[in-house]
């Protein structure tokens, strides 16, 4: 049994082009995540799908019970694969994720999904703080443009601005191709 877990974070319908909160390049992100998922299944790695709901009918996206809050078909869980429901950006906060991983002997997590500047960042930092070795597959993560002080920061710059500090201290940050070539 592998000590590595693939954690797919918030690859949900609302983040796609027809969703309520589209994320830049989400089709390419999900295609890369699907490649990671296929290999993880083939290698017998632990898999965890994380799904975010914002518990309010006023939420801008991920409203409970809506199609937008469902995991996208590109990375849909198979029967028996765990799905963690969360309500905060950090996938470990108020969920069983840490306990589930530790119970399976997981020491390394490979993280992909959305968004780079929120849930990926929060989850990767928490995983490192809990002592897991962390790999973030950066082109299997998507960012959304952000506005601050009347300036709009394009999604690619937001993505880079979050991947750089993760790579500096919290995680090994690699491309899908690089990661797959390491473990194939």
Topology:
Elements: E1 4-9, H1 26-43, E2 46-52, E3 83-86, H2 97-103, E4 108-114, H3 116-129, E5 133-142, E6 146-148, E7 151-153, H4 155-170, E8 172-174, H5 176-183
Parallel strand pairs: 1-2, 1-4, 2-3, 4-5, 5-8
Antiparallel strand pairs: 6-7
Organism: Pelagibius litoralis
GO molecular function: hydrolase activity
Keywords: Hydrolase
Molecular structure report:
By secondary structure, this protein is an alpha/beta fold. The chain has one domain: Rossmann fold (3-Layer(aba) Sandwich), CATH 3.40.50. The chain has five helices and eight strands; from the N terminus they run E-H-E-E-H-E-H-E-E-E-H-E-H. It has helices spanning 26-43, 97-103, 116-129, 155-170, 176-183, and strands spanning 4-9, 46-52, 83-86, 108-114, 133-142, 146-148, 151-153, 172-174. The protein has a six-stranded parallel sheet with strand order 3-2-1-4-5-8. Helix 3 (116-129) runs parallel beside helix 4. The longest helix has 18 residues, at 26-43. The mean pLDDT is 97. Residues 4-148 form the Isochorismatase-like domain. Keywords: Hydrolase. InterPro entries: Isochorismatase-like_dom (IPR000868), Isochorismatase-like_hydrls (IPR050272), Isochorismatase-like_sf (IPR036380). GO terms for molecular function: hydrolase activity.
Based on CA atoms alone, the radius of gyration comes out at: 15 Å
CATH architecture descriptor name = 3-Layer(aba) Sandwich
**Main β-sheet, spatial strand arrangement:** 3-2-1-4-5-8
Question: What structural class is derived from the secondary structure elements?
Answer: alpha/beta
Seen as an oligomer or otherwise, the chain set is: single chain
Beta percentage is 15-25%
Which consecutive residue ranges, at least 5 long each, have pLDDT under 50? none
């Amino acid at each position: 049994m592998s000590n590595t877990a693939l954690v797919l974070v918030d690859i949900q319908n609302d983040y796609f082009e027809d969703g309520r909160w589209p994320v830049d390049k989400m089709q390419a992100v999900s295609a890369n995540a699907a490649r990671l998922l296929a290999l993880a299944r083939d290698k017998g790695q632990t898999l965890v799908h994380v799904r975010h709901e914002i518990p309010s009918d006023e939420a801008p996206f991920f409203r409970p019970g809506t199609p937008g809050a469902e995991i996208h078909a590109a990375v849909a869980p198979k029967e028996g694969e765990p799905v963690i429901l969360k309500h905060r950006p950090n996938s470990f906060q108020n969920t069983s994720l840490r306990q589930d991983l530790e119970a399976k002997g997981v020491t390394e997590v490979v993280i992909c999904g959305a968004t780079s500047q929120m849930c990926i960042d929060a989850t990767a930092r928490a995983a490192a703080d809990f002592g897991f070795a962390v790999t973030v597959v950066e082109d299997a993560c998507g960012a959304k443009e952000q506005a601050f002080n009347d300036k709009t920061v394009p999604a690619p710059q937001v993505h880079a601005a979050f991947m750089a500090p993760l790579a500096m201290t919290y995680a090994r940050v690699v491309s899908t191709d690089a990661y797959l070539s390491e473990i194939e």
